[in-house]
């Protein structure tokens, strides 16, 4: 009888493990969706006096460790105290095509070195080829690569310990997990800048899933989502291995405090900046760039996109949206700068698209000046893409998804550009708005973008904020704002 009952039970209901695994995708998406809405509409915590509005941000007085808004909004004066900082970066940009995190690191550390601080960077070349170490004044870049061209952590630490023995570092800084958490927890005074966190990556995977499999008919297509929650939990557990956390968007800082449960005083916002002397409005360079790449003179509007041409950067989305737009508006032209699998697909769209390949750094400003609108179709709602702020510095409005990191910091209103939900229908509607506005209105929005970028996204403001941040961590006197030397 017992055997009969057992058999009956098994045949009448699925095993508990089967039910569990079938529920994972549903529960994952439900939890992420609810949490995403929670973050969008619920304020982070009680906001200290003077930090809730932009007007009050410029009038802030108090301890900088209590600041919830980007440090870039404040104006820090000169300092005579110099620092010795160790920095770990995934790669160091060499030639064309390096990622934004690497270009950010090079801009930041060069700027800090120019301010008189001794900066020692432990990294590898972005082209994964042999290169000698770089020593330029106060900037020292040590290449410590393994056989695969990635950072050899043991070798990097041998060099690090040797430089540290000649005079202890005031602070250690790492770009994301370039300094692994299992190393970081054994190193005193470690600050990390997060260019993306797994919580945001899970949102990216949701958007990619909805775009590639809108009806949910592909078997096994949600496997990555099933694996995402354990990876998120693992990340939450190791984040305290780093002493201080810098986020490049306010939305990411909210997540670190609210979801990752880090102490608010250990979480700070410093926005990315680019060289404001290099990215400037230049009509002549734009005309020259158009002539060089044979852009038709009768093009009504020229859209531009730059970066790695891969799926998670949203190129399937842009491909579909532009294909839909171009047959209704044949005068609209698309310039595609970058390399990747989608380069060939774009060339299939015909003469209204020009695929340029990767551009050298010296060509980027000309590219931005040659377009009317910069498009960033990314499916990765994380960080602050340098290409967006480079285009803004060149006086171009932007078209980007309505992620919190973008709509909360970059495209604050319609006067700065256009946002859309990460789906084809919404993207096409935004593109139609661009066409309706026309070149003259786009120029006006571009000038507003230039002003906005100069107020927040400059290398000078970024380096000044990082400088004060490290000084504050070394000496609490510098945590007070404003000091007598501050502007």
From TrEMBL:
Keywords, comma-separated and alphabetical: Glycosyltransferase, Membrane, Transferase, Transmembrane, Transmembrane helix
GO molecular function: glycosyltransferase activity
Domain Glycosyl transferase family: 290-439
Database matches in InterPro entries: Glyco_trans_1, Glyco_trans_4-like_N
Residue ranges of every copy of the Glycosyltransferase subfamily 4-like N-terminal domain listed in the record: 98-278
Keyword Transcription in annotation: no
Domain of life assignment: Eukaryota
Keyword Nucleotide-binding in annotation: no
Transmembrane segments: 20-44
Signal peptide as annotated in the record: none
Listed name of the protein: Uncharacterized protein LOC116209115
